[in-house]
Design brief:
Layout (H helix, E strand, L loop, with lengths): L1 E10 L3 E4 L2 E10 L6 E8 L14 E14 L5 E14 L20 H14 L5
Antiparallel strand pairs: 1-3, 1-5, 2-3, 3-4, 5-6
Length: 130
């Protein structure tokens, strides 16, 4: 598993390659090195939907796998291909995802005095040897 952060430069539509296979390609510009790199990624099958909320120009962190394969042409020439398969795409600076701790209602949380009282009660009745 690899991760990289950059800016979305190109976002292509989902392409139905065959009846059972679809993919969506996008280009990420990595700006952290001295010479920025434009890197082509692909999302396949149900992961194509990961790109629906992402727009060109947004900064994202992409988690991906490096895939390689061999192909023999009809003329018998052997070639090797690599692909970068994205499996998670997150906008940078978005914080905790919706539904996470940032949305918790803390009004019913016990006070520190209540927690201390519970701990002291449990210590008195605790019969565990450790």
């Amino acid at each position: 598993m690899y991760k990289i952060t950059g800016t979305i430069k190109v976002m292509n539509p989902t392409v139905q390659v065959s009846e059972k296979f679809s993919k969506r390609e996008f280009v990420l510009t990595e700006n952290l090195s001295q010479y920025p790199q434009d890197i082509l990624f692909q999302a396949v099958q149900d992961r194509c939907a990961l790109l629906d909320g992402i727009n060109v120009g947004e900064q994202v962190e992409v988690s991906f796998n490096l895939r390689g394969r061999e192909w023999t042409s009809p003329q018998g020439e052997v070639k090797f291909f690599n692909s970068l398969d994205a499996w998670r795409i997150e906008k940078v600076g978005q914080g905790i995802p919706t539904g996470g701790p940032s949305n918790m209602d803390l009004s019913d949380a016990p006070s520190s005095n209540q927690v201390d009282a519970l701990l002291s009660t449990n210590e008195e009745t605790d019969d565990l040897p450790f």
